[in-house]
Amino acid sequence: MTTKPRILIGSPVCQKPDVLSMFLFSLEKLSTSALAIQYLFIDDNTDPTSSKLLRYFAEKHPGQVEIIRSQEPPSTYTCNESTHVWTDELVWRVAGFKNELIARAKEGDYDGLFLLDSDLLLQPATLETLLAAEKDIVSEIFWTSWTPGSLPEPQVWLTDQYTQYELKPRETLTAKEQYLRTYAFYEKLRVPGLYEVGGLGACTLIRRKALVAGVHYSRIHNVTFWGEDRHFCIRAVALGFSLFVDTHYPAFHLYRESDFPEATVWMKQIYGSAPVRVKTTHAISAPISRPKITLSMVIHNEADKHLAHVLKKHREYIDEAVIIDDGSTDDSVEICHELLKGIPLHLVSNPTPRFTNEVALRKQQWMETVSRNPEWIVNMDADEVFEDRFALGVHALLSRKHGDVCCFRLYDMWSDSHYREDPYWRAHHVYRPFIIRYRPNHRYQWKEQPLHCGRFPSNIFELPSFLSHYRVKHLGWSSEKIRMEKYARYKRLDPSALYGWKEQYESILDEKPNLVPWKE
């Protein structure tokens, strides 16, 4: 009889009740049937409702949960929409709590300690995936905008305090080189996999070998780096352990109040449900203003494809539409007027198609759109549509976030009910921009190439960006007829695959591609 691995899930908790409620809900959704799980919480809460939530969790899981009440005097932890304020005293207070969790894991002869911050939401397969990695120290990735409007950053780094770009000894980089290497690192982490890093934290599995070897979070007296995770990581590497991050199942970091609408959407998408928020005097939300949303689109002979369907979906949330008809000879224009009736529509028709020079067409689309003085521009092709729940949440999403570029995952639908996933079709593993807030004073620049130039100017990421967990359905591959037409088009416009990927072009005709069911 095989003995189940014994894992202690531990967390120091000083948390708002509504955040803690979602964290505990997330823990209950973890896949643990092949594991023997125990929970250990260090209750450092200042809100009695949070302590009550921990006790209720223990009552629901008799014999599995231990709660240790902190004996430290209460401390002040400032947490607001801008940032979380960590004093030096707080950092080492938490380090002491984590050391206590390590000690209890060693005493209990556990196979591993899963250390978690209490503002994380985990995907069900997270813990089993970390165990399957068979690494002594491994974290699951999550991304955070540390200040409002900033680009989301991973909680892992490569060297020193928080350096997130490759740097050789004595190598000096310009600011631009640092920027490019940082974003290369981010792009790598967006691809699901297991990667060695120099630092990690907050969502970490520590196996027994590392626990027994003596890893801990105490201060290293001759290291001035701030934060207990740095001292843990330096000590671990000095003891001979490598550090890894898994990126298959990114966690959601519920970092600020304005993240709640998106967190709720994320939970419903991942778990199928989300808990009702705990009502406290601190959970009063300001009214959500309604941002103006302009749909921008290029069409060409779309009448017998997906145009009617996508316009019906878009009209549920847009305030205006700008459409470039690129020389259509069918009823595409009439469909636009009919289905967008009652919504301001600015439609420009090109007498002859310009799609053989995509950058010229995209520039035309952009200029016509910005001439309407837009606030938010939703730039969608005529075969792209957001998932159903987007219409209800988009105004909250754009009102709560302080960035200017909103990125989404796009799924290549191979039928009405399935999307394709294989080495050539992985668009949904990367976040791409579909919505941008127009900034008139920004100097926009384009990628000057006739094909695959991008729907937006190439330098939009000079503006602050953020991610959304709403998904985009790309219907442009969803029938064999359309696939054959596109294959022929790419072979005609890009025969040497100068602007695309030759193997992907050829894979369009695969007879038995790997298809995954789409779930709303």
Automatic annotation (TrEMBL):
The answer, when asked if Transferase is one of the entry's keywords, is yes
Biological source species? Brevibacillus gelatini
PANTHER family attached here? GLYCOSYLTRANSFERASE, UDP-GLCNAC:BETAGAL BETA-1,3-N-ACETYLGLUCOSAMINYLTRANSFERASE-LIKE PROTEIN 1
Q: Which residues form a coiled coil?
A: none
Gene3D superfamilies from the entry?
Spore Coat Polysaccharide Biosynthesis Protein SpsA, Chain A
* Every Glycosyltransferase 2-like domain range: 297-440
For this UniProt entry, which residues form the secretion signal? none
State the source organism's domain of life: Bacteria
- Family that this chain belongs to: Belongs to the glycosyltransferase 2 family.
Q: Which UniProt keywords apply?
A: Transferase
Task: One Pfam family, please name it.
Answer: Glycos_transf_2
State the Gene Ontology terms under molecular function: hexosyltransferase activity
Put simply, this protein is called: Glycosyltransferase
